[in-house]
Amino acid sequence: MSNPFVSQTPRMTIRNLDLFYGTFQALKQVNLLVQINRITALIGPSGCGKSTLLRCLNRMNDLIPGVRVTGDVLLDSQSIYGSDMDVCRLRKRVGMVFQRPNPFPLSVRDNVAFGLRVAGITRKNQLQEVVERSLRAAWLWEQLKDRLDSPALSLPMDQQQRLCVARLLAVEPEVILMDEPCSALDPISTGKIEDLMLELREQYTIVIVTHNMQQAARISDLSGCMLLGDMIEFGPTGNIFTNPADKRTQDYISGRYG
Ligand SMILES: Nc1ncnc2c1ncn2[C@@H]1O[C@H](COP(=O)(O)OP(=O)(O)OP(=O)(O)O)[C@@H](O)[C@H]1O
Ligand SMILES: [Mg+2]
Asked: Most buried residue, 93, 106, 124, 220, by most Cβ within 10 Å?
């Protein structure tokens, strides 16, 4: 692949980001460019701030009492922490997939159509069209087209996770955040999610948190290694894994921390 740094303008720009949980500082002057149509991996030992940083990208930390954020995060060129930002709309544009699949206790169809219904769309044809398109994009259509009214919670875990991806895609996000999306899955299911991510990269911008170094190496274009709230190194994944500039990155990748 050509050098991912020179190709495009960033989709998201993180500037001098600090985050405090009460008096505890969990992110320290983090800077990061999230490139369009690339997979960016956040790696680092447990507790270093990966999930915290990910949650800053769609303001999910707003839901935690006592959190204070300084610095800025831009989506395209707009500050997401600006007073004119509509947070509901932001979370559609920057959607999130969690560690454990979290489909709603509804049918497959109603899970995928959920966001559209909330937005007031009720036309049956339109909903059906979006359900099909989203399930196809998440590689679930063939398996589930005859089971659209089955309960989502009866699906196997990997299908539940892909259903959560389909639910996001239905509201047409620009950025997909994934926090250890394969940690509850076996290796075969993990492979399916990884293949899906590689395909989604063509259309979306993806940021993934992972503890699995092989996974980061396999699928990400860029990696950021964090330690105790600092972004200690960021760059093309190939460089980070084969020739890290910072000895602490080397130590983490070779298994010397957590
Ligand atoms: N809601 C919270 N209130 C207070 N402290 C928190 C909260 N959430 C996280 N922290 C602290 O912030 C730091 C970063 O946590 P975070 O969950 O972002 O790390 P992480 O890199 O995602 O870890 P892991 O790999 O274990 O998921 C940790 O010291 C954690 O204890
Ligand atoms: Mg985490």
From this structure: 220
